[in-house]
Design goal:
The protein is an all-alpha fold and about 140 residues long. It has one domain. The protein is built from 5 helices and no strands. Helix 1 runs antiparallel to helix 3, helix 3 packs across helix 5 and helix 4 runs antiparallel to helix 5. The protein is elongated. The N and C termini lie far apart (about 70 Å).
Length: about 140
């Protein structure tokens, strides 16, 4: 039987960000039913490839509880941070590869673990450049 007075978190990496930890913590504190609703909303958004704001399953309009609001705030902070870091990394890759003309291979050797991201970003930037040249 599950003890509702305690929350068991999984093992977490030491380098987890404060926003990620807060997001996990607020989600863990949600009642089981609210957790299921939140997961269903995420699954539905991913399935439809569209996030529909303020839609609650079955059309029921349910007031968001304080706990759900805290979870949503934590989620937004984490996503905002991830988006900012992604944009900064893309700008860095653009500057290194397209402005300073550092070879992609060299950049990937300098930043192990980011090889796939570097490849995708360089490919995307090159497509934008090619499209831009095609319009002129």
């Amino acid at each position: 039987m599950k003890n509702k007075e305690y929350i068991q978190l999984p093992a977490l990496h030491r380098d987890i960000s404060e926003e990620e930890l807060l997001c996990i913590w607020e989600f863990a504190k949600l009642p089981d039913e609210a957790q299921e609703q939140m997961l269903d909303r995420v699954k539905e958004a991913l399935r439809e490839d569209v996030v529909q704001k303020d839609i609650v399953p079955d059309g029921d309009h349910v007031a968001m509880t304080d706990r759900i609001n805290r979870y949503m705030v934590a989620s937004r902070k984490m996503l905002k941070r991830a988006m900012i870091e992604t944009c900064q990394l893309a700008a860095f890759i653009y500057h290194e590869c397209f402005v300073l003309e550092i070879p992609v291979k060299e950049l990937k050797q300098e930043f192990p673990g980011y090889e796939d991201y570097i490849d995708v970003t360089v490919c995307y930037i090159q497509q934008l450049i090619d499209r831009s040249k095609g319009k002129h």
